[in-house]
Design a protein that fits this description.
13% helix; 5 strands; binds zinc ion; mainly beta; elongated; 3-stranded antiparallel β-sheet; 1 helix; two-stranded antiparallel ribbon
Length: 76
């Protein structure tokens, strides 16, 4: 499985560490029909995937709350 572990700061107290699994977005080439000269190629980007693995050990927020807050703050 692609991805890597990341440690994020807790968005609530900023002191705790949140364990998260991050699967980075990838660029994918999508060839369309006749493209012998490389034209007509489309590049699409998948979205980042974040899986929050733990809550905050400092302030006690659960993973669901942390994930929601991180999304609100556009961190993930
Ligand atoms: Zn916290």
């Amino acid at each position: 499985m692609r991805g890597e572990y990341q440690e994020l700061s807790c968005p609530f107290c900023d002191k705790g560490k949140i364990q998260a699994w991050h699967i980075p977005s990838v660029w994918m080439e999508k060839r369309s029909g006749r493209s012998s000269l490389g034209k007509g190629k489309k590049v699409i980007r998948s979205s980042d995937v974040w899986l929050i693995k733990s809550g905050c050990s400092n302030c006690g927020k659960c993973p669901e709350e942390v994930e929601k807050k991180l999304r609100e703050l556009n961190i993930i």
